[in-house]
Amino acid sequence: MQLKMHQDASLAPSLAEQVYEHVKAGLFDLALLPGDHFTESDVVSALGVSRTPVRQALQQLAREGFVRVSQRHGWQVCPFDFDRFEQLYDVRIILELAAVERLCQQPSLGTNSLLQELDSIWSVTPEQRLPASREVALLDEEFHCRLVEATGNQELGAMHRDVTDKISIVRRLDFTKQNRVAATYAEHAAILQAILARRGDAAKCLLRTHIEASKAEVRKITIHHLQSARKIGLGQLAWSRWLTE
């Protein structure tokens, strides 16, 4: 494929930013697994761009801890740093509990459009639930981000999205298992009901338990788990296929 620049150059992300987003999406979708190697030339030929924006994009991903330079093979996907993931989960818990407390104090809680939208997605019958898929993983991320954004505090929302981005690659693995999807629907609905009823302590307890369960799953991740997740559709079947789509 070739990346296309936005028609309105004033609104368009730079070519390096487009390459960055494309490669990061591939990493998050497990097109490449921790330890896999690739070269700048792979990305250059696949995306139809010059080497400079590719190098800039990969350097940004390296600064964020997703890839690193490999002397023999060009670039390598970084191994998972489970200690760092656990620390980020702890930060996430702090931010989301603070958000719940603020939400329960809102005078206009019952008319909060973001909460109403979330309720329509998650408070559904089992027959209406989506199966284990990338779509559910993305909806889960949006549930937690929008829960924080519903407070109206933009800085809190921005900090939370930054943390979400850093753990997204492991959080999505939860949604390769149908039992985790079913639990997520039920738990999200219960959290929303407690918030809308202004039962702050109950909502925070439910939310903490929900996130801790996800955090516990992270430590169970193995290479076999990652390979299985890639095969059943979280990402593409292979690096070469991802590059050409």
From TrEMBL:
Keywords: DNA-binding, Transcription, Transcription regulation. PANTHER family: GNTR FAMILY REGULATORY PROTEIN (PTHR43537:SF45), TRANSCRIPTIONAL REGULATOR, GNTR FAMILY (PTHR43537). CDD domains: WHTH_GntR. It comes from Kerstersia gyiorum. Residues 13-80 form the HTH gntR-type domain. It comes from the Bacteria. GO terms for molecular function: DNA binding; DNA-binding transcription factor activity. This is GntR family transcriptional regulator. InterPro entries: GntR_C (IPR011711), TF_FadR/GntR_C (IPR008920), Tscrpt_reg_HTH_GntR (IPR000524), WH-like_DNA-bd_sf (IPR036388), WH_DNA-bd_sf (IPR036390). Coiled coil: none annotated.
